[in-house]
Amino acid sequence: xxxxxxxxxxxxxxxxxxxxxxxxxxxxxxxxxxxxxxxxxxxxxxxxxxxxxxxxxxxxxxxxxxxxxxxxxxxxxxxxxxxxxxxxxxxxxxxxxxxxxxxxxxxxxxxxxxxxxxxxxxxxxxxxxxxxxx
Amino acid sequence: xxxxxxxxxxxxxxxxxxxxxxxxxxxxxxxxxxxxxxxxxxxxxxxxxxxxxxxxxxxxxxxxxxxxxxxxxxxxxxxxxxxxxxxxxxxxxxxxxxxxxxxxxxxxxxxxxxxxxxxxxxxxxxxxxxxxxx
Amino acid sequence: xxxxxxxxxxxxxxxxxxxxxxxxxxxxxxxxxxxxxxxxxxxxxxxxxxxxxxxxxxxxxxxxxxxxxxxxxxxxxxxxxxxxxxxxxxxxxxxxxxxxxxxxxxxxxxxxxxxxxxxxxxxxxxxxxxxxxx
Amino acid sequence: xxxxxxxxxxxxxxxxxxxxxxxxxxxxxxxxxxxxxxxxxxxxxxxxxxxxxxxxxxxxxxxxxxxxxxxxxxxxxxxxxxxxxxxxxxxxxxxxxxxxxxxxxxxxxxxxxxxxxxxxxxxxxxxxxxxxxx
Lengths: 134, 134, 134, 134
Description:
Four copies of one chain form a homotetramer. With 134 residues, chain A is mainly α. The first copy, chain A, has helices at 2-7, 18-44, 48-73, 80-104, 109-133. Chain A has one domain (3-133).
């Protein structure tokens, strides 16, 4: 709720439906935290060598989500190309992380939860991209 | 919910009550996003020269919250000094941002909401620090 | 020198010429810092209302550069789509920031220096993209 | 050179000697990149289980350095407590990372180089803290 509430108080109207924008920011924030935890949990597992690829992709995803939520949080005179490219970078990182977590989801509950979070972020990014193009 | 859920699946037990830790990570994530929006909304106001200090402190707060939530998200062999110093840096930034937003809260709704979020983050950081020392 | 030196000690060979990769990481790191300073200097100028767009784009650029340098710093089993999308997001943000700084470069020396740094980062990103596709 | 040059064009005089401030920002930027590479190189080594602690601490250090360089890059109406706490969080993370990298420096050249970079960042942070208190 809090991100949508503050977005609605911004003196400039959002370029898109504030609820779609806020959902994307919220999912990026949740995905940044979840991927950070999953990458770290990978390092603590007995089969860490099998989870190196997962840890690496989750770290990338946390980085992409962190940058994207900040760029999306700004409504003052945005640059459309930068905004779209940021969402696309986030999408690519979330897809890679979701697909790799999926491979480990039946062995490691943190990978199952992380895949779910990445899929929510993918959906929110896709909806925002559609709204930005609409 | 999602951060606490994934923290509870981590192979290493958390050094502290996972609900206290998760709450701090969640509030840092919300505060990073809220402060980013508030700093940007400051730039779009007609009285932007009066809001420069607020924008600056909110940017600092977003940076401190972003780093702290990542450091806290890792449970694998943490360094106690680094973790505590990160939470203290987050606290200092949230306090500065909350106090300055308070000065503008009656004129700008985004400052009022941002102050509220910073105060929630302060409380969560203080509870976590107490639990870490406990 | 230091980024190239440590990249060359990585157990996995880089997917591309380490000097091209290191140059891109170094320019992203310099651009993150320079854009942070320029956005802040904009806030301190007497004509801050005319510099709001510049501050906003420099903040985006710092965020994109920060995420991209981290993703590029990882050589262990990278995801080609994520890496390319990250560099493209960085390019878009650097171009927007360089073009807006250019408009203020004759009035504000920090904008002139920031434009120069953004152009160096653009060139390094373009060279890396070409090498990744080569 | 570039960070010091742009700091010197800022309309507000720096609270401290710009060369001391710039050196700290430059070392934080280099340390963020170096620690990102070292953490990733750890994951690619055959003895990854022995390097998990190193990877974790290097990730923390990259996060602390990234936030600190941004907070230090702002000279417009800084909050002294926030700035000092950020430098102290960076110091704590650099010390933990340097000490753990030291343990692996004779086996892994990336740990040796990373320790060196962390020590340079520690020295720059200590000099800045002394100047801020001076």
